[in-house]
Design a protein that fits this description.
InterPro entries: Aminotrans_3, PyrdxlP-dep_Trfase, PyrdxlP-dep_Trfase_major, PyrdxlP-dep_Trfase_small. The chain is of the alpha/beta class. It has 2 domains: 196 residues, Alpha-Beta Complex (Aspartate Aminotransferase, domain 1), CATH 3.90.1150.10; 244 residues, Type I PLP-dependent aspartate aminotransferase-like (Major domain) (Aspartate Aminotransferase, domain 2), CATH 3.40.640.10. The strands form 4 sheets. It has a 7-stranded mixed sheet with strand order 4-12-11-10-7-5-6, sandwiched between helices. A 4-stranded mixed sheet has the order 1-2-3-15. Helix 1 runs parallel beside helix 15, helix 4 packs antiparallel against helix 12 and helix 15 crosses helix 16.
């Protein structure tokens, strides 16, 4: 049915209408983009928040609500790609940042809050014995790769197709939105640098064989156990266990990138799976809304950064361990109890269930997957099980659903991902379901015939 010309025409008409409504309702955001483009490429500084015809420009937020420059308030299920686990304006974080700002913004010296936040993270994540802070997840991944290469004496690094590991050449190679490039003789093979070994979750036996073949020069395998930017794709636990086993056997370091998905569980996804990587990369949540990154793991590996050690790896960073961020991170983690993770997981599952019921009732070939407080819209009859599968989704329908939800007062990311917070409740779940119902009635009415 989804390939029928009538359906395609209906989706195209609906998308045109959604774009027209969006332009009409958000003149302030349009004007901002036009003027900001004089000094910012495209009018912004983050590719991840861009979407056509122009991104929504937000002015303020409180709880699960945000208001744009035109004064319209919406339900914020984007939450800065999951950063705002306590919503906006959370009083303990606001007070912690205010108090620290009066003591000092930053120093060229250690500050006591660094160790306080580090201890909280180490307590939550047993695989992290020592850690270091950076200013972003991108920097944390880059530093983790540096120490992996130094520790193993090897150069190449492997990653899964669809994995996003920050805005570096490694982080984006073969990442979200890319066609699988598994090092074949295709014309695209040159797009992946030679020191990166791309792997596919769709071919687990080939994946393991590739690790064995490249072992002599392979320093690490970097994995998002749940690929967030790629569409909330859960890497099969049995495959992760195989990767853990073969990397241990071959002396290859296993690095878990939990920058986005650390908020799925108190101890991260690795605690849910019962796996222990050699290194873990964190970010987003642990900064309480301020810029942050961190990486840590085995003491024998992280000890290479010890400046009292001869030949130590140098890792500088003006804002590493910034006391403002440390204060916010401590307040954020201290307010997160085990029950909060369970509750957010249940809410996201309920939201996905409500949304899927609406889609099924309206006979729309789209679906919603949920995991640990996150959910994601896939313009496919059933949720994709790999990023390669997700690339087959109906892009026009996906854009329609994304813009339609914004027009009906609900924000999700341009990839269709959303997240609940500790301040989300059943009323917000119902609000999402009602908004999706209105989107389909407003923009896909001809498809019902």
């Amino acid at each position: 049915m989804t390939g029928a010309p009538q359906w395609q025409d209906a989706v195209a008409r609906g998308l045109d209408a959604a774009i027209a409504d969006y332009r009409r309702d958000n003149p302030g955001s349009a004007r901002y983009r036009e003027t900001a483009a004089d000094v910012l490429p495209g009018g912004g500084t983050r590719s991840s928040y861009h979407f056509a015809p122009f991104p929504l420009v937000l002015a303020c937020g409180s709880g699960d609500r945000v208001s744009d420059v035109d004064g319209r308030t919406r339900l914020d299920l984007n939450a800065n790609f999951g950063v705002s686990v306590h919503g906006h304006g959370f009083a303990p974080i606001v007070e912690a940042v205010r108090a620290q700002s009066e003591r000092g913004f930053c120093f060229a010296a250690p500050n006591p809050l660094e160790a306080e936040l580090a201890r909280r993270i180490c307590e939550r994540v047993p695989s992290i014995e020592l850690l270091r802070f950076t200013s972003s997840g991108t920097e944390a991944v880059m530093a983790a790769l540096s120490v992996a290469r130094a520790f193993t004496g090897r150069r190449r690094v492997a990653k899964l197709h669809g994995g996003y590991h920050g805005s570096s050449d490694f982080g984006t190679a073969n990442g979200p939105g890319s066609a699988p490039d598994l090092g074949s003789n295709s014309a695209r093979a040159a797009a992946v640098p030679a020191d990166i070994l791309p792997l596919s979750v769709d071919e687990p036996d080939r994946l393991v064989a590739s690790l064995r073949e490249a072992a002599d020069d392979l320093a690490a395998v970097v994995v998002e156990p749940v690929q967030g930017a790629a569409g909330l794709i859960q890497v099969p636990p049995e495959l992760l266990a195989r990767i853990r086993s073969v990397t241990q056997e071959l002396g290859i370091l296993l690095i878990f990138d939990e920058v986005m998905m650390f908020r799925m569980h108190r101890g991260g996804v690795q605690s849910m799976l019962g796996l222990r990587p050699d290194l873990t990369v964190l970010g987003k949540l642990i900064g309480g809304g301020l810029p942050v990154g961190a990486f840590g793991g085995r003491a024998d590996i992280m000890g290479l950064f010890d400046p009292f050690r001869e030949g130590a790896i140098r890792l500088a960073g003006t804002y590493n361990g910034n006391p403002m961020t440390m204060a916010a991170g401590i307040a954020c983690l201290d307010a997160l109890e085990e029950a909060d993770f369970t509750r957010m997981d249940h809410l996201a599952q309920a939201l996905a269930g409500a949304g899927n019921a609406v889609l099924a009732r309206r006979v729309v070939p789209a679906s919603i997957v949920a995991a640990g407080g996150f959910f994601c819209l896939h313009a496919l009859p059933r949720p994709a099980r790999s990023h390669a599968q997700l690339l087959q989704q109906d892009q026009a329908l996906h854009r329609l659903l994304h813009l339609g939800l914004i027009n009906e007062g609900v924000l999700v990311t341009p990839t269709g991902m959303g997240v609940v917070s500790t301040r989300t409740g059943p009323a917000e779940v119902d609000e999402f379901g009602a908004a999706l119902e209105r989107v389909l009635a407003r923009y896909l009415r001809p498809a019902q015939a």
